[in-house]
Specification:
The protein is mainly α. The protein is built from 3 helices and no strands.
Length: 91
C-alpha cells in the first residue's frame, strides 16, 4: 500500500534564529525594520491546492506581530510549515 517513497522536501535556507525583538526600535536594529502592520503571505509553488483557513491565518498573524517578525521572517515560517506539513499537488 505504501510502496512509493515519500517525496523529498527541499526547504529554503532560513534565517538564523534570534531572540524576538521587544520593541520596534529593537526590531529595526536586529532585522532592518519594524514588524509590518499587515502581513501578506504567498503559498509556495506546488501547494496552491491548500484551502485558506482564516482562523489559522489570524492566529499566525497575531503570533508574528507579538514576536515582531519582519515580512520575510513570517513568510519563511509559512513556507516551512506548508512544505513540512502538507504534500505538494501532483502535476
Amino acid at each position: 500500500m505504501y510502496d512509493a517513497p515519500a517525496p523529498k522536501v527541499v526547504l529554503p535556507d532560513l534565517p538564523k534564529p534570534t531572540a524576538p525583538a521587544t520593541t520596534d526600535k529593537q526590531a529595526e536594529a536586529l532585522y532592518g525594520g519594524p514588524a509590518p502592520q499587515e502581513y501578506e503571505f504567498t503559498i509556495p509553488l506546488g501547494y496552491e491546492h491548500l484551502v485558506h483557513d482564516p482562523g489559522k491565518h489570524e492566529q499566525f498573524v497575531r503570533y508574528a506581530r507579538e514576536q515582531k517578525l519582519t515580512q520575510a521572517q513570517a513568510q519563511a515560517l509559512v513556507d516551512l510549515h506548508v512544505r513540512t506539513a502538507y504534500s505538494p499537488s501532483k502535476r
